[in-house]
């Protein structure tokens, strides 16, 4: 039976059929297109409309970007070269590059100083931002403010050294006296620092001309360098100040609490631009003639005040989000107030507050362009003032402002990406 | 109560004494630098070039004063000021003089306690329209949309002009000159109005300047000049007569080409001799050396030469002399005599 049967069948497959590829409409890019762009008639129409809009935008921007001119010396020459073609006049960026970065009065042969300070800055903030790096690097971070000050402003090297010695001595006094009482340590440290600064003032020579690095007054700073300096200084000063204000606002001591509440509410109720005008205009009336504080310092104080009030409120939100049990747990372990804050409360509260703090840091960095209204030449002030007012470049708007937005976008996007990495890195919950 | 009044009075007295005792001329000489307030940037009038060196029509006045006082046109610390900070900078003593295309008005002179030391540019508000519009006079602008900077005197002048001529307009408010250029070129308004010098400078940056015309009507008076604080008349005199020296030199035909020759010895024209210090003692009266005007003129030449080099017809801005011609040529420039 089996024999006949075997012969009656013409073909018996011995192996499995290799799996056929899925139909063309169910695979690869076609499937993706069908599912995402042309799922329904309406979606298809919207896709085509969107593509058309993208084409319209790109067909203007791309020739402008790639057909641009990079090496002429004035807008009129740009137009001559272009002969009516579409194209950006990017020569303004190449010709005025140093002015956009350093401002127009920083001595040209001294550009290496801010450059070196910038490199040091990258090294100095690395261990603060990425805590996997060796902790020894923090010594460099501690020295960085003094080194950077000396590099950028120049003058006698004794100025930053005296400032650093005052702070170190203050720290040691604090360390010694803190064992008996916090208040004694705190005020003792401040008094020591001031005594040392006062005495050190006599060492600093009046005549700065013989200094190793020629002195550069604050008025000569400018360009994107000024934005970076203001942004970095103010963020790093306002974070500790904001933490102190937030804790002060929660304090049981009425005097401290009310000082913090009044400070925060007053500063938040006043626009930043008003504070800047006070810094640049009103203070000149209040001080006797000839004893004006440095304009850069005045602006730093005002922006720091402003952003620390906001950061304080963000951190207060973080503190309020912690369950009461965390505070009680800290108390039950027998920790005193500084220990409880340092070990239990703040690490959690700050972690919750990261998005808010970064939000304010990004906003603050962009707010530094407001200094152009008090005639400091940050990158926007350089563009709106000297560069657009020169006879060669009057009328070049898109190229200059586009460049400025690119600079700010790159920096702010970097900050935002870092904060997202930090949140992932610190995630200890199991969601 | 009595005590606080006493302290208040003492403070005021001390401040007044401080202001009066300090002779600005002595301060400048001791400092070795003139602090001169300028704009943060206005085409042709003041702007730093690619090397960071300040150039422009207002800047030239600062340099001339510095040369007359300190014998060095580069001994100037240019302090950029905005429209909002300029007067406080001068009042607080941060700057010695302000040369920042500032209109001489009653309230600025009297109420703000400044002293205008002359007029270096007679400006006035004008109108610019595209040529296609076929308009040849501002009185034909009935129903036009006008781009105008908010919060300026130009806004008020515009309303006055249209009301006086009994025609209507529709304002398009804008914030800055840069925005105005874009709006005007994009066709958001038919007319752009601001100071005539600003119109000329703006028009010069267009791709096709010949497609736009500046109408002949000037609807306001904007006399621009340098100013100093009240209360130091010697310093005010010095700035005033430095400017007058530039103007007089043009009237008398003293140029940077023949300056050295004329200053070498007394010539036939007694006024030139007095101006250049080869005769008389005018410099001594100002507390300066006899050849102070020679030094001021050596910087950029006389008024006419400064005008031509910075904003004149050979420059991209291309302003005609107009009202700013010498009185002998039908303009308004008229310096009192050097005698």
From TrEMBL, chain A:
Coiled coil regions in record: none
GO molecular function list: transmembrane transporter activity
Keywords assigned: Cell membrane, Membrane, Transmembrane, Transmembrane helix, Transport
Pfam family, one: BPD_transp_1
InterPro entries named among the record's database cross-references: AA_ABC_transptr_permease_3TM, ArtM/GltK/GlnP/TcyL/YhdX-like, MetI-like, MetI-like_sf
Signal peptide start and end residues: none
Membrane topology per record: Multi-pass membrane protein
GO biological process per UniProt: amino acid transport
GO CC terms: ATP-binding cassette (ABC) transporter complex
Transmembrane segments: 41-66, 111-130, 158-174, 181-204, 224-247, 259-287, 299-322, 343-365, 396-415
Localization in the cell: Cell inner membrane; Cell membrane
Domain of life according to the entry: Bacteria
Annotated ranges, domain ABC transmembrane type-1: 224-419
Entries under NCBIfam families matching the protein: HEQRo_perm_3TM
Family the UniProt entry places it in: Belongs to the binding-protein-dependent transport system permease family. HisMQ subfamily.
Listed name of the protein: Amino acid ABC transporter permease
Protein source organism: Pseudaestuariivita atlantica
From TrEMBL, chain B:
Classification via Pfam families: SBP_bac_3 (PF00497)
SUPFAM superfamilies linked: Periplasmic binding protein-like II
Endpoints of the signal sequence: 1-22
Keywords annotated in UniProt: Signal, Transport
InterPro entries cross-referenced by the UniProt entry: Bact_solute-bind_prot3 (IPR051455), Solute-binding_3/MltF_N (IPR001638)
Swiss-Prot/TrEMBL GO biological process terms: amino acid transport
Domain Solute-binding protein family 3/N-terminal: 33-262
Domain of life from the UniProt record: Bacteria
Family classification: Belongs to the bacterial solute-binding protein 3 family.
Name of the protein in question: Amino acid ABC transporter substrate-binding protein
Native organism: Pseudaestuariivita atlantica
């Amino acid at each position: 039976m089996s024999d006949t049967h075997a012969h009656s069948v013409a073909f018996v497959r011995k192996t499995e059929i290799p799996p056929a590829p899925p139909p063309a409409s169910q695979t690869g890019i076609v499937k993706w297109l069908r599912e995402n762009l042309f799922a329904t008639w309406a979606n298809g129409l919207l896709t085509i409309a969107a593509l058309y809009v993208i084409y319209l935008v790109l067909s203007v921007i791309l020739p402008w970007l790639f057909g641009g001119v990079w090496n002429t010396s004035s807008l009129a020459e740009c137009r001559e070269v272009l002969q009516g073609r579409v194209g950006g006049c990017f020569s303004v960026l190449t010709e005025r590059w140093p002015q956009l970065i350093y401002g127009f009065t920083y001595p040209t042969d001294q550009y290496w100083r801010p450059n070196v300070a910038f490199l040091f800055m990258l090294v100095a903030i690395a261990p603060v931002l990425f805590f996997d790096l060796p902790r020894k690097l923090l010594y460099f971070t501690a020295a960085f403010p003094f080194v950077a000050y000396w590099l950028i402003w120049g003058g006698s090297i004794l100025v930053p050294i005296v400032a650093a010695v005052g702070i170190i001595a203050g720290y040691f006094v604090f360390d010694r006296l803190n064992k008996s009482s916090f208040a004694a340590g705190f005020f003792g440290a401040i008094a020591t620092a001031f005594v040392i600064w006062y005495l050190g003032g006599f060492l600093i020579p009046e005549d700065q001309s013989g200094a190793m690095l020629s002195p550069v007054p604050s008025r000569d700073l400018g360009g994107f360098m000024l934005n970076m300096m203001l942004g970095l200084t103010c963020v790093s000063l306002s974070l500790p100040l904001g933490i102190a204000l937030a804790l002060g606002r929660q304090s049981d001591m009425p005097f401290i609490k009310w000082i913090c509440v009044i400070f925060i509410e007053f500063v938040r109720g006043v626009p930043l631009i008003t504070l800047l005008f006070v810094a640049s205009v009103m203070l000149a009336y209040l001080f006797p003639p000839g004893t004006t504080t440095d304009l850069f310092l005045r602006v730093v104080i005002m922006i720091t005040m402003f952003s620390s009030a906001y950061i304080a409120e963000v951190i207060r939100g973080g503190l309020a989000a912690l369950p009461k049990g965390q505070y009680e747990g800290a108390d039950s372990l027998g920790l005193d107030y500084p220990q409880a804050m340092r070990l239990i409360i703040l690490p959690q509260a700050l972690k919750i507050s990261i998005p808010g703090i970064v939000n304010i840091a990004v906003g603050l960095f962009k707010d530094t362009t407001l200094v152009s209204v008090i005639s400091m030449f940050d990158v926007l002030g350089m563009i709106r003032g000297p560069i657009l007012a020169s006879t060669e470049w009057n009328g070049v708007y898109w190229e200059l402002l586009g460049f400025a937005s690119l600079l700010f976008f790159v920096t702010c996007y970097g900050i935002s990406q870092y904060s997202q990495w930090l949140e992932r890195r610190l995630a200890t919950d199991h969601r | 109560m009595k005590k606080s009044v006493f302290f208040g009075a003492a403070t005021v007295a001390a401040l007044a004494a401080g202001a009066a005792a300090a002779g600005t001329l002595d301060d400048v000489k001791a400092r070795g630098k003139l602090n001169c307030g300028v704009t943060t940037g206005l085409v042709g009038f003041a702007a730093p070039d690619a090397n960071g060196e300040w150039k422009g029509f207002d800047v030239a006045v600062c340099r001339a004063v510095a040369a007359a006082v300190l014998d060095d046109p580069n001994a100037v610390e240019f302090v950029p000021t905005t429209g909002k900070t300029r007067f406080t900078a001068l009042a607080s003593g941060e700057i010695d003089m302000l040369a920042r295309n500032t209109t001489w008005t009653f309230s600025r002179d009297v109420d703000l306690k400044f002293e205008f030391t002359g007029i270096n540019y007679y400006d006035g508000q004008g109108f610019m329209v595209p040529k296609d519009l076929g308009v040849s006079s501002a009185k034909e602008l009935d129903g036009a949309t006008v781009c105008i900077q908010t919060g300026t005197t130009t806004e008020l002048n515009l309303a006055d002009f249209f009301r006086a001529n009994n025609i209507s307009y529709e304002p398009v408010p804008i914030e800055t000159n840069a925005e105005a250029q874009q709006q005007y070129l994009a066709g958001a308004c038919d007319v752009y109005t601001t100071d005539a010098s600003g119109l000329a400078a703006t028009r010069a940056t267009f791709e096709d300047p010949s497609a736009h015309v500046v109408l002949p009507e000037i609807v306001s008076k904007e006399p621009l000049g340098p100013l100093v604080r009240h209360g130091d008349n010697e310093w005010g005199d010095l700035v005033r007569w430095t400017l007058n020296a530039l103007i007089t030199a043009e009237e008398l035909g003293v140029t940077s080409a023949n300056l050295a020759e004329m200053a070498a010895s007394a010539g036939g024209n007694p006024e030139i001799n007095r101006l250049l210090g080869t005769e008389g003692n005018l410099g001594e009266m100002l507390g300066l050396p006899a050849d102070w005007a020679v030094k001021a003129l050596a910087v950029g030449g006389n008024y006419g030469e400064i005008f031509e080099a910075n904003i004149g017809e050979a420059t991209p801005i291309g302003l005609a002399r107009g009202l700013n011609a010498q009185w002998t040529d039908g303009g308004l420039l008229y310096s009192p005599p050097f005698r």
